[in-house]
Design goal:
3 helices, mainly beta, globular, Cathepsin D, subunit A, domain 1, two-stranded antiparallel sheet, 10 strands
């Protein structure tokens, strides 16, 4: 198992008001496939643990900085146009990863961000994993509409 643990330095003078962060594990899904088919050993799966990934309901995808995309060995399959306050930009889209948050796991594509940008957990993985933001306690919780249990709505 190749594990990289990333801890972002706290920037002096920034506020954490309203910020929701959580610990996540991101694994190369192609490596997981290779383990199942005997191509590599389980300890060779490329994985990164991020202690303070930013939950961003305004974002759509799981967004990782370029250096993490490279460390995971992900393959680019295209580009997507996205909009920011600074205007439109293009971002690389990369093969799926296995994302684990609080024991819940899903497979999602990755959008690449420049280095220095925080890891963003967007609305798509939150929906798949059935998490919502509890802004009062600044954390994610299991969807109260489902009693906090992980339920996938298929309608």
């Amino acid at each position: 198992m190749t594990t990289t643990k990333v801890r972002r330095p706290r920037t002096k003078g920034t506020t954490k008001m309203g910020r929701v962060t959580t610990k996540i594990v991101v694994e190369n899904a192609s490596d997981e496939w290779a383990v199942k088919h005997g191509v590599i050993k389980a300890n060779e799966v490329r994985r990164i643990t991020i202690d303070d990934a930013l939950v961003d309901t305004g974002a759509a995808f799981l967004t990782l900085p370029k250096k993490m995309v490279k460390a995971l060995g992900l393959t680019k399959f295209g580009e997507k146009r996205f909009k920011t306050a600074a205007g439109e930009r293009m971002a690389g889209m990369f093969d799926a990863v296995r994302l684990t948050i609080e024991g819940r796991t899903c497979t999602v594509d990755v959008m690449e961000a420049p280095d220095g940008v925080p890891v963003l957990i967007g609305q798509i993985p939150l929906e798949i994993l059935d998490f919502v933001v509890d802004p009062k306690r600044r954390r994610i919780i299991g969807n109260p509409a489902h009693g906090g249990e992980w339920v996938i709505e298929a309608y």
